Amino acid sequence: MMEEPKIIFKTTTSEDDEIMQGLKTLYTTPEGTIPLDRVYGLNQDFIGYPTELAKNMYALEVINKTEVYEPRVEVDVSFEDSEDGKIIPVIKIKKSEEGDEE
Questions:
Q1: Quick check: helix, strand or coil at residue 30?
Q2: What is the pLDDT of residues 16-38, one digit of tens each?
Q3: Chain-centre distance of CA 5, in angstroms?
Q4: Is residue 27 within 8 Å of residue 5, measured between CB atoms?
Q5: Burial 13-47 (b: 16+ CB within 10 A, else e)
Q6: Is 53 exposed, middle or buried (0-12, 13-18, 19+ CB in 10 A)?
């Protein structure tokens, strides 16, 4: 089972704070639970799959949804194991370079 993700993002401006809050909401919302935007949030299909496959599915979902909902940043997803056997996603966020945005 996956724990709530650790999000690593150095916020220095109020815009960064807004980005961080938006991403926290995105990463902790199951897909299909927001009435006017049913694709918002993370798809939970990874639950029940073997660990390595579930990690890959989760990481891909985080990367894809971040590109859609917050194109101003890039993400890198890794994982830590907790003492009680749960998986903790670690999401490192950095602002995209000005020229990288499409």
A1: strand
A2: 999 999 999 999 999 999 999 99
A3: 7
A4: yes
A5: eeebeebbeebeebbeeebeeeeeeeebbbbeebe
A6: exposed
